[in-house]
Amino acid sequence: MTSEITLFVNPAAGRGRGARAAQPAASALRAAGFSVRTVLGEDARDALARARSAVEAGTGALVAVGGDGMASLALQAVAGTLTPLGLVAVGTGNDFARALGLPVRDPAAAGRVVAESLKEGRVRDVDLGRVGGTWFGTVLASGFDSRVNDRGNRMRWPGGRLTYDLAMLAELAALRPFPYRITLDGGRVREVEATLVAVGNGPSYGGGMRICADADLTDGLFDVTVVGACSRTTLLRVFPRVYRGTHLDHPLVTVYRAARIELAAPGVTGYADGEPLGPLPLTAQCVPGALRVAGP
Keyword Isomerase on this protein (predicted)? Predict the structure, then answer.
């Protein structure tokens, strides 16, 4: 492995935590004997182009500093290559870092873990999901939760987490099931009325909501969580259990496992790793060992 590491930084992540986190992460890498080159980019497209150029030039690793959005962007640069990805997670959700067992909101600790892993050659391969040309590490969300994202993205006020909370209240008031057609591995077809369908490569989204609690990053399969049609009262009663993953025991919840899934439902957008994919229908494929990661 070359001794040059590329630090991929989102300075705006976590209200400026990304910029502050870059220094201790870089210090940990340099202390381990690596030279560090920082990539910022003028916008997401430019940053991704620069990260891809670093990967093509043979950088020893791409270490993303930021939140889930930055992790998602980094995946697009390293997926399917032999270049390891390190994560210094300082955003709001940090779900992919948690799934990988990396420290969150502690850039010095995360930097040390990544640096030690790279120095010792301790890297491992994990699965990724892919929809068309887009890779994702955690969850493809659709239904109620993606409608909340849609509404939140349209809101110009009040900003931050409160926007999401208000969008959720508005969607609760308009709660209705969606008629889904779910095709698993090209053969098993389920036509259901569902509140939401979540396709998990990893277990959680939204900052620790374990919607696909038993998802395994190394089994070559998605865990597909289907929440059936339910009332607002039922949804509000079951929702807190998502943080522990115990909602999977509820009679309205069904879990399937598949390597390939096709989702179709009218008026529903898909989001993966919190980023919009576009309207359903969408087809997702679990790609075994698509990502090499530096970590525990």
Answer: no
